[in-house]
Amino acid sequence: MSYARKAKNGYYGYASYQDNNGKWHQKAVGHFKLKREALKAAADKEKELGAVNVELHSITFSDYYHCWYKLYKENSVSEISKSRYLNFYKVICSYFKDTKLADLKRSKYQEFINWYGANHAFSSVSKLNGAIKNCVSYAIDDDIITKDFTHNVKLVSNKEREYKVEYLTNDELTTLKTAVVKKLNRYNTSRYMILTAIYTGMRKSEIQALTWKDIDFLHSTITVNKSWDEKKKAFKPTKTESSNRTIKVNRELLKRLADLKANQSVMVFQNVLGTIPTSNALNKCLRSIMKAADIEKQGFHFHSLRHVHVAYLLGQGVDIYAISKRLGHSDITITLRTYSYLVDEYKAKNDTLIIDKLAEI
User: Which is nearest to 12 in space by CA: 47, 54, 53, 42?
Assistant: First the structure.
């Protein structure tokens, strides 16, 4: 039964409805100036809740997840993200089979997380849980379920599966930079891209997408407002909205990049053949340079330079918040989580310094 409750400067409207098990619930419909407005909104919401497609209440978790992906994700995420969502779908199908979405409880979901986490690293478990949590929020809006069964679930992972990125010491970083600069040639733009990654910490696709309009030589900045799809050979949006940013860079990098203007291309790293170096080309070039410089790092690749950039800045005492903004992370917690091993190492060094300084009192 719909009703209205007196509030400051008006009324709150509430709609009543029954769930699959016949249990009654109330749903707030908002704040209104007049009581009749609150009652009408509540009554309309009751009709809406009562008219929910009965078939949705018997839909399986896997089917709903797939529908959610097709409606809200398929046309708005990158190819890599699409692949990840579809892999999660296979996992859900394998574990839950014909389990109805409406029958899922937190304990059942925790068992699933425990099962998946036994053979996966924390980052994988976190991404899976994030996708499902997002999906569940839509299921609540669709009135199929009333509670978020992912709430307060403990994420479990296999520590042996954790991948610790190898990064360079300051001496190794200096050696690498010197080796890169030593044989810079405008016909080989891969080396310039490696140098840019060292100095900016930008993602590969962001560096690939740079045009001369994005570089402000007067104010020493690089603006990131797009990325590059190397398969389709076309521009695409940045990874996230927060990835759109302006990065302050040093004059040495800009001086080196200016050499590439002789290639007379709109895009900074387009070579004389009219192509942008791909992941394979960049990794091959990087491995070649490191081998010649006697730098051995297991599993080191182009993206590792982003980690190297963070490690160097942390080591120089740069604030983690400033680093987070420079990387284009939407939240500092993403930076802390992604580079936790670096932050913990830096914290350990500072703890020792703190104790030493306190001993001087």
Answer: 42
Q: What is the pLDDT of residue 20?
A: 57
pLDDT in tens, 213-243: 999 999 999 999 999 999 889 999 998 888 9
Torsion angle of C-alpha atoms 79, 85, 91, 94, degrees rounded to 10: -90
Domain with residues 170-330, CATH architecture: Orthogonal Bundle (1.10)
* φ and ψ at residue 267, rounded to 5 degrees: -90, 140
Q: Which ranges in the chain belong to alpha helices (H)? A: 35-50, 61-68, 79-96, 106-117, 122-141, 170-182, 189-200, 204-208, 251-257, 279-292, 304-315, 320-327, 332-338, 340-359
60: which DSSP letter? B
303 close to 311: Cβ distance less than 8 angstroms: no
Residue spans of the domains in the chain: they are: 3-51, 58-161, 170-330
Tell me which residue of 240, 259, 257 sits closest to 200, measured CA to CA.
257
Distance (Å, rounded) from C-alpha 269 to C-alpha 13? 59
Structure confidence by residue, pLDDT tens digits, 179-191: 999 999 999 999 9
Q: Are strands 221-224 and 245-248 parallel, antiparallel or unpaired?
A: antiparallel
pLDDT bucket at 66, cuts 50 / 70 / 90 = very high
Which pLDDT belongs to residue 337?
A: 72
What single-letter amino acid sits at 327? L
Instruction: Report which DSSP code applies to 166.
Output: P
Domain spanning 58-161: CATH superfamily? Tyrosine recombinase, N-terminal domain (1.10.150.130)
Q: What is the pLDDT of residues 305-315, one digit of tens each?
A: 998 898 888 88
Predicted TM-score (pTM) of this structure: 0.66
335 contacts 320 by C-beta, under 8 angstroms: yes
Mean pLDDT of the chain: 88
Tokens encoding 144: 């199929």
Let me know if 58 is exposed, middle or buried by CB neighbors in 10 A (0-12, 13-18, 19+): middle
Reported as a pLDDT band with limits 50, 70 and 90, residue 57 is confident
Token pair listed for 313: 């800045």
**What is the C-alpha separation between 112 and 119, in angstroms, rounded?**
12
